[in-house]
Every structure is written in C-alpha cells, then in structure tokens.
Amino acid sequence: MSAIPKRPAPPDVFDELVRLRRAGEPCVLATVVRTKGSTPRKDAARMLVVRADGRGGIVGTIGGGRIEKEVVDACMALLTEGAAARPRLLRYHLTHELAMCCGGEMEVFCEPMVPEPPLVVFGAGHVARALVPLARSVGFAPIVVDELEEYASRERFPDARIEDSFDPRDWTFPLDDRTYVVIVTRDHALDQRLLEAVIGRDLAYLGLIGSRRKIALFKERLACKGVEPARCERMHAPIGLSIGAQTPEEIAVAIVAELIQVRAARRPADPQDPPGSGTW
After folding, report:
1. For the chain, how far is it from start to end, CA to CA, in angstroms?
2. pLDDT (mean) for 42-61
3. Which of 31, 32, 178, 226 has its CA 20 to 30 A from that of 88?
C-alpha cells in the first residue's frame, strides 16, 4: 500500500512577513484583537494580505466567509495608499452587518507594513561612507553603487546592499516614486552621465553634490539634450540643507536632514500631530 503524500504545510504568517520585508514588498497584517459571542476565529488570529498580480493574496486566515472578504478588501485599499497608509481598526457584527449566522462580533486591527524606502547612493567615497549608516539609522534602505571593489565593499558598507555597475542596463534596484537617489561620485563626467540616466524618472528625491557653478553647467547640458526645466528644478543641487557643512561627516548630516525633510513632506498631515511633535 503506497503512502499517502503529505500536503505541504501552509506558509507561516510571520515567516512570510519576514520574506516580504526582505524583498521590499508592502503588505498588511490583519489581527483579530477582540471577539464577542460566536465567531469563526478568536483573539490573535492573523492574516497577511499581499498584492499578487494586481489582486489580493492572503497567508493565514481570520475565519473565511464574508468577514474575511471585508477585511481583505480593506487591506487592499490600504495597500493602494502606499506610504500614506495608516492602521485601521475594523469592527463588525457578523449577523447584523454581514448576514453571517455566527451572531458574534469581531474587531480586526489592520496594520500596513510598508518597507523602508530605498536610498540609491551613486559613489562610495568619503561622503557615502558617512552618509549610509546615518541614513540607515533613520529608516532608509541604502544601496551603494560603485565599480571600484575597494570602495564598494561589505567591510566599508556593512549596512547596505552593494551594486558594482554604473551602467543602467545592469541596474536591478528600483527607481520609482519611493526611491531616493544621491549622486556623490568622484568624477564630474560620471555625475553628468548618471544624472542623465535618472533625471527622467519620477523619483521621491534626486540630489547631486557639487558647487553652484557645476550645477549650473549640468543644467545647461541637460537643457541642450531636451530635458524639461521642471525636471531640473525638482533636483536638490547643491545637495543637502544649507547648514555650512564642510567635512564629509557634516555633508552627510546635511543630506540626511534633507532626506528626512522630503520624506516628511510626502506624508499626509495628521491634525493630532503638531509640527515637530515626532512619534516615539
């Protein structure tokens, strides 16, 4: 008699959450936080909602049926909000609102899990070395790009992903409206080439290091190549907040301060949080 093959175990919610986090994919964690009466699942039941080919995919369950569909739809709506999404507490009476026979009540807390925004740092010199750990500490995911192995090494950048090509055809990192880009290479011609490769992208942030004379010259060259002036005006150059920075470490502080400023401006205003209140 042949043995009956075992079904593979369903994915664990937290294992999948870790995998999605590492892959930089957003998701929503739905947790049952209160129940009353007869309900399909009890407190601490969890479900992970992810976007799969434009549709909602789930790992785990909070009970199936109408209640689960309502929660999945709410989580998918949060996913479409991206970084602006805020946690939501959903309350349902299963019979009165959802026409389920259970008769009980459920509260489900839906928590968006939005990955840290990628920060692409072109150039692995002194400024980058000071910038990367500081940016990591305030919630960015650094990607260092440099073709010199002695500069772009795991020893110099233990907290960053390393890419070894300045050729756009080799890039596998994102360059979209969640991506922050900093150009701080050792060569002006390379800066110009990289700028031309990314200026047409709808990035969250694009910053270029250099003097005002260098920036003006670059803008003239971009205009000659048909780049719209509005694209150049969105560029942060000279890079960083104007705080009188001179050393690589000071310049890194100025850049990260500007990154934080831009990131904060992209978030929706919360009337309960006055400017500067922060969250701890």
Report:
1. 62
2. 80
3. 178
Q: How far apart are CA 48 and CA 110, in angstroms?
A: 9
Pairwise CA distance, residues 75 & 79, whole Å = 6
CB atoms within 10 A of CB 23: 8
Question: How many C-beta atoms surround the C-beta of residue 169 within 10 A?
Answer: 5
Q: Indicate the residue type of 181.
A: V
Q: Which two tokens stand for residue 195?
A: 């700028």
* Alpha carbons within 13 A on the beta-carbon side of 119: 28
Helices marked H in the chain — which ranges? Answer: 13-23, 65-81, 126-137, 188-198, 212-224, 229-233, 248-266
- Specify the pLDDT at position 277: 42
* Mean confidence (pLDDT) of the chain: 86
Cα 168 to Cα 184: distance, rounded to the nearest angstrom: 17
The predicted structure's pLDDT at residue 10: 60
Q: Pick 54 or 125 by higher pLDDT.
A: 125
State the sign of the Cα–Cα–Cα–Cα dihedral 122, 119, 241, 226. positive
pLDDT at 279 over 50: no
What DSSP state is assigned to residue 7? Answer: P
Closest CA to 218 of 235, 204, 203: 235
Average pLDDT over residues 76-103: 79
Q: Which residue has the tokens 């003097």?
A: 211
